[in-house]
Amino acid sequence: MVLYRFLRPFFFLLPPEVAHGLALAGLEAAWRTGFLRAPRGGPPVEVMGLSFPNRLGLAAGMDKDARHVGAWGALGFGFVEVGTVTPRPQPGNPRPRLFRLPAADALINRLGSNNQGAAAAAARLARRRSGGVVGVNIGKNTTTPPEGAVEDFSRAMRMVYGVADYIAVNVSSPNTAGLRDWQSAAALDALLAALFAERERLAAEHGKVVPLAVKLAPDLGAEDLAAAAATVARYPVAAVIATNTTVERSAVAGLPQGQEKGGLSGAPLREQSTRAVKALRQLLPASVAIIGVGGILGAADAREKIRAGADLVQIYTGLVYRGPGLVREIAGGLAG
């Protein structure tokens, strides 16, 4: 943490995507040279039928192409969610598309699921030497019309099924036009019906049943959230990830870059995502786990998500503002 406090001003002088790439290159180098060593694990946590070394995970978006899975584990994460990956590679939205709001410990991104495609991520995961739980977050290509979305999700699932410990279905990014429409009860029902039919075929082919999770937005109203939860409950969904980024801007009104389009993450999202976790815990059967994400910048924030009903938690923006020491702080704070 002390070293990162020294380095952060330098990183913040750079464009956010440049700083992101540089930080990940440094992380990878530290792992490959043996500087990073996985911390001693506590008692494992059983969630979704999987054994997690601890309750803290890396949220999707930080390592879209599954380049640094081993390094994240050595940093102390109990699990890593890579992606979002799409069936075909795509460049994402035009730059600039990632913005820092330091006064609010927040980010706004409109990256648009830039990634090298599901096949590239699957190939890297097939070669990984490290253990640990790895989820793969899947989505549709931006250029795919609505009538092709179900096939996009199904194809992405087919491409990563053999190398994923769980698969997260992303229907909640605000940066792909029309994607959030798939959270409606009717659309979500059609999507889940197709995906679980596809999973039955894939389970027979691969000899394993991979848990499926659904990632929801924090901007759903109470009725829409209840409808989505009721739809999820009709299928053997293993977990709901709550939540993605928000399009709400009241918490950052007046801040430089605060009105940029995209999804807002970080401290301003904490209360909104925690409310969603609490509501979903009341709406969903106990068999459906909840992964809480949004605004976790310390161990107290993570414990708040657990008290609200989360079984696991994930971070992203907190790493940008607090640095790698945050991982052990949170993992240690949730132990026991």
Task: Write a structural description.
- There is one protein chain.
- The protein has 11 helices and 13 strands.
- The longest helix is centred in the middle third of the chain and has 22 residues, at 185-206.
- It has an 8-stranded parallel beta barrel, surrounded by 5 helices.
- Helix 7 links the parallel strand 9 and strand 10.
- The protein is globular.
- The chain has one domain (2-333): TIM Barrel.
- The protein is of the alpha/beta class.
- The chain starts with a helix and ends with a helix.
Mean pLDDT: 95
State the fourth-level CATH superfamily. Answer: Aldolase class I
Identify the CATH architecture: Alpha-Beta Barrel
Any idea how many domains? 1
First and last CA, distance: 23 Å
- What is the CATH topology? TIM Barrel
SSE arrangement, N to C: HHEEEHEEEHEHEHEHEEHEHEHH
As laid out across the biggest beta sheet, the strand order is 3-4-7-8-9-10-12-13
User: Quick one: CATH class?
Assistant: Alpha Beta
Indicate the percent of residues in helices: 25-40%
The poorly predicted ranges are none
Q: How is the secondary structure organized here?
A:
Elements: H1 2-13, H2 16-32, E1 45-47, E2 50-52, E3 56-58, H3 69-75, E4 79-85, E5 98-101, E6 106-109, H4 118-127, E7 133-138, H5 149-160, E8 166-170, H6 185-206, E9 212-216, H7 222-233, E10 239-242, E11 263-266, H8 270-283, E12 289-293, H9 299-308, E13 312-315, H10 317-322, H11 325-333
Parallel strand pairs: 3-4, 3-13, 4-7, 7-8, 8-9, 9-10, 10-12, 12-13
Antiparallel strand pairs: 1-2, 5-6, 6-11
Helix pairs in contact: 2-3, 5-6, 6-7, 7-8, 8-9, 9-11
